[in-house]
Design brief:
EC 3.4.22.70, 2 domains, 8-stranded mixed β-barrel, Sortase, 10 strands, alpha+beta, Sortase_A
């Protein structure tokens, strides 16, 4: 009898180690899908983007665009005080603000994966909003509970809802006129139809898809000073909202999970 008790005591540390390792494995498995969204949200919160008043001397070469993945995001840590995030990328020339779907993103020049992780891209940098149709594209990232990241959310835009754009130091207001699904090959849908229009485009879902959401909006005449105030106030409100969502959807779950696991492992090693 005593021999069995002694053997059980000797096996206890091994059992505890196995339980601890299994707990950590479960934590890693839970964390892998969460990490992608966490890194995207962290990029949005931590990256400080300077908006320039002229086009860059060199526009980055167009890349084959892939959906955001953990490997890509891990290699693109945010920089707190740089004008450029790395190399020739992340040269911002504007900002798009859409209050009704909580979008507040910089507009970069250069269709690269890095730029699309940090915001939106002006698809045709040779077009000017005072002379041509501006086309802004971005990734569609859907998180749990209906929380959208990057350009996810534009698929919910309705007619007459406002879209505010800063391009260099000029401000524009547009009203949504249509919201349709097109094929990625329908490039003719993005034809320049003049300076009174704006295109917004993203994938129609988070997973790889041949379909795109295309929003067309029409420019409206507004007092310039009032428009600038509206733009800045809307951007400020959305920034504060984004910070709160970041705490609620990302930081708090991490803290709660670490607390629960710590209590569990403490109990395992105490008995």
């Amino acid at each position: 009898m005593e021999r069995k008790i002694d053997e059980k005591k000797r096996n206890q540390p091994l059992i505890k180690i196995v339980i601890t390792l299994l707990t950590l494995i479960v934590l890693i498995l839970i964390g892998i899908p969460f990490s992608k969204y966490f890194l995207i949200a962290t990029h949005t919160q931590e990256t400080k983007t300077i908006i320039h008043n002229k086009m860059p001397g060199i526009i980055p070469k167009t890349e084959k665009i892939e959906a955001p993945n953990l490997a890509t995001l891990m290699g693109q840590a945010p920089q707190a005080d740089n004008q450029k995030i790395s190399g020739e990328n992340a040269y911002a020339i504007g900002q798009v603000v859409i209050p009704t779907v909580s979008i507040n993103q910089p507009i970069f020049i250069g269709l690269t994966n890095e730029n699309l992780v940090h915001g939106t891209v002006d698809l045709f940098p040779n077009r000017q909003p005072d002379k041509n149709t501006l086309t802004i594209i971005g990734h569609h990232v859907f998180y749990y509970g209906g929380y959208q990241l990057l350009f996810g959310g534009i698929q919910n835009l309705k007619k007459e809802e406002p879209v505010y754009v800063r391009y260099f130091n000029q401000y524009y207001e547009y009203k949504v006129s249509s919201n349709v699904i097109i094929k990625e090959t329908d490039v003719d849908k993005l034809v320049d139809i003049g300076p009174d229009y704006l295109y917004l485009m993203t994938c129609n879902q988070t997973l790889k898809t041949p379909y795109r959401v295309l929003i067309t909006a029409k420019k409206v005449s507004v007092n310039e000073m009032k428009l600038k105030e509206t733009f800045q106030e809307s951007s400020k409100v959305l920034t504060n909202k984004s910070q709160k969502n970041y705490l609620i959807w990302f930081i708090m779950p991490i803290i709660i999970l670490i607390f629960i696991i710590s209590i569990f492992l403490f109990y395992v090693w105490k008995i």
